[in-house]
Amino acid sequence: MYIQPHIDSAHLKSSSHQWSGNSVQTAITPTTVFSTVQAKAPFEFKSAAHLLFIERERASSIDELLKALQSCPEESIFQHTFRTLEEHHFIKEGFSNDFAHWAYTELGEVGLGERLASLDVREFTSLAALRARLVQVVEEFASENPKSRERTAPMPFYFCSSKTIVLQTQRHAANLLEFIDGLRQVSLHSIHYHFIEARLRRKLESNDFSIWLLRDLGLERESALLNHIDIYTSTLEGVRRKIIQILQNAVH
Question: Are 70 and 136 within 8 A, CB to CB?
Answer without folding.
Answer: no
